Amino acid sequence: MSAQAASRAPRLAATAGRNVRRTRPAATPKPLKRDEKGVPIPLVNVIVRDTHRSRLADHYHHTLQDDLLYMTYKHEPTARPAPRPVRLAYNPDDPYTKHRYNPPLGGNRWPKQLPPPSSPDNVVQLERIQIHSMIKGATASRTNLLGPIMALRAITGASEKAGGQHTAEGVQLVKGRMNVQGWVRPGIPVGVKVDLKGPQMYDFLSVLVEFVLPRLRDFQGVVMEGPSNRLDKMSSASGVVSFGLPPQALGLFPQIEVNFDAYPQTFGMHIHCVTSAQGVGAQNRARALLSGFQIPFARS
User: Fold this and answer.
1) Is pLDDT above 80 for 87?
2) 34 pairs with which residues across the strands?
């Protein structure tokens, strides 16, 4: 070892036990600000995206969509005729009836309109699911709505602006619109509802068909009309399939069953499956879509 290295070794050993560079103590973080509801506001805008792929959504895009196109396809070799011009009740050029309400003749033509041409771009699909429940005791006390609000949040996972999504509305209150003597007044809450779209819609539908409907007693399927009914009725031209569940079905959801004692009162609910089907026979195309998701149907 050289003399220069020997003289440097004691100095290195003396400074090894202490910090050569002075450091400042860590600053104490300031508490987060809170909004009007008392929820802390994060320093950055946190937006939660989809964490996993929906199994039912993949089933629709990879299997069910092609089957529905094959089942509902209607070949049109020629172009469709031009729509019939609308005939009004009064002559719009007549000065005596110019500002009078002028309804079209022949009634409402909406249920008789033709469906869009069959193509891979307009195959019927599920747009949203609405769940609502009317609570009779809500007119006497608004606290009776706390249980249904908690239950719908649990089984749907929907809350207001959840995951930073500003379009997420969560569970909403249903208020009365007209005055029913002795029961409902305009503006008072009478129930709750929630709209589901995207992955939440498919997750709720998966739980419904796998855990709730198979264990529901005396459930033969969603009741539909007989084969003798016309397809151009007002209800048959709607692409909305609605059915109800009894109060016993609430306890069959896994989110409620694991903590059933926290919900002292059960309630029924109505489920509306809104599809993109339009025109004559839209109800049958919407039923074909839901039957592909394993929702059973039964004749009345």
Assistant:
1) yes
2) 40
Cα dihedral value 218, 281, 242, 183, nearest 10: -120
Find the mean pLDDT for residues 265-279.
Answer: 91
Q: Which residue has the tokens 């009914």?
A: 229
Q: Go through the chain and tell me how many residues it has.
A: 300
Q: Which of 191, 194, 179 is nearest to 142 (CA)?
A: 191
How many other C-beta atoms lie within 10 A of the C-beta of residue 265?
Answer: 12
> What sign results for the dihedral spanned by CA atoms 273, 274, 275, 278?
positive
* Cα–Cα distance, 296 to 300 (Å, whole number): 13
**How far does Cα 128 stand from its chain's mean position?**
5
- 8 Å CB contact between 193 and 171: yes
Residue 21: both structure tokens together:
């560079």
User: How many beta carbons lie within 10 A of that of residue 130, not counting itself?
Assistant: 16
DSSP state of 28: P
Tokens representing 83 are 């729509």
Instruction: Tell the burial category of 197 from Cβ atoms under 10 Å away from its Cβ (0-12, 13-18, 19+).
Output: middle
- Cβ burial of 109 (10 Å; 0-12, 13-18, 19+) is exposed
pTM metric for this prediction: 0.77
Q: Count other C-beta atoms under 10 Å from residue 262's C-beta.
A: 11
